[in-house]
């Protein structure tokens, strides 16, 4: 598939000091107001104001948009090798599931249709191979429009509903059984979230798609019914584990919906038993914020947790109940914090998105050894940049392909931007693509899609004027919905090149004639009339 990028003529973000306009404005007004006699140097005052601004933004009390919105995808320096990927079982597994072969032989769609009609029905892999020809490649339009930033947008596991959560705290439920903009997604319920501070940060659904849970900057989790009322949303406090400025950044249902798993700002991964109405398990590591938690597969005992220091820790839930510290494995390879985790749901592989501007693929069987952890830590200290992804420009070194000593990831995917929020990256659906693709939101407003087998970017479609925080691919249709801070949810679908050319010709006023004979006849008729 050829790489497709649209709207690439926007300007780059060119300022490393994103707070410069605010600082200059404050200092100017101080001089105008007669406060020039402030004791202390100008640099000291600037440092003090900057510290106050950073603390306010970090606490969520204020938000700074900045003047420089990065509108172009970054240029990656160097080429990523696929040697480790090709040697791994992941490569052959996805090849088989997506209907690919080691030899790139031409294949005939008409012959496949004939075989299906007269010989045998298609296998799942053949269906995925066909569907991969029609992955979303254009923005169809705006599916939902709101008055506040959209932080979460996901399909329920059965694909029947699409659910969004905005900064205002409203949760909206849409009927997703109809496709496209028209008739489109019909709103069936709206709920007002309880105790929402800053925003709803993460959501998950029970396997039957009836209940939801959300996480926010609060000392509680909240559970409700998608078709219920706002007043029925239940609050589940973190009890004695709560603390000042506490937040839960990630949450997931477990054990068929009977348990909840949460990753929190105090560095803990906690498990709540809904039947017993009690927190039954808690693992704490280094007081480092846990930004993402995911079970390795449906009812697995293995849990992945991504922290703000860039490490991914593996926990065995059978041991979490008897000891509060100690993971059973660790992965190193990210130079900065993990923003999201998605699992292949086969008990082996998962991906992480990170503030170091990479998505990495991991094999849970190959954890980092102590020597690799120490080696990577030494290199990470040398590569560290004093920056914060909420307000500073991304260090240029993050866009360079380097072999990092101690990195145990299978593959890295580069080309998108991650800043200001915990942007999500996910595997494409198994039922329609064989999980051949990895797709992600982007700080540039693009929807970005990578080929998991090659690491190449195959789609980059600009559709938003602000960051795309969440992405959702319908489980059974070739449709992707993107949730953005520009207050819109966009729908992306497949459109053939011929369709675009035909519409372009129609817009230019050119009449499409079926044959020269018909054209000549029309001209004769017009001549006779005149």
This entry's quaternary arrangement is single chain
- Report, as a whole number of angstroms, the end-to-end distance: 52 Å
Helix content: 10-25%
Q: How would you sum up the global shape?
A: globular
Q: Major sheet, described briefly?
A: 5 strands, mixed
Number of strands: 29
Question: What's the average pLDDT?
Answer: 83
Computed CA radius of gyration, to the nearest angstrom: 25 Å
Structural class: alpha+beta
By DSSP (H or I, 4+ residues per run), the number of helices equals 11
Ranges where pLDDT stays below 50 over 5 or more residues in a row are 6-17, 31-39, 505-513
Strand content of the residues, in percent? 25-35%
Side-by-side strand order of the widest sheet? 1-26-25-24-23
Structure write-up:
The longest helix has 18 residues, at 42-59. This protein has eleven helices and 29 strands. It is 21% helix and 31% strand. The strands form seven sheets. The protein has a five-stranded mixed beta sheet with strand order 1-26-25-24-23, with no helix packed on it. It has a four-stranded antiparallel beta sheet with strand order 2-29-28-27, with no helix packed on it. A four-stranded antiparallel beta sheet has the order 3-4-5-6, with no helix packed on it. The protein is α+β, with helices and mostly antiparallel strands.
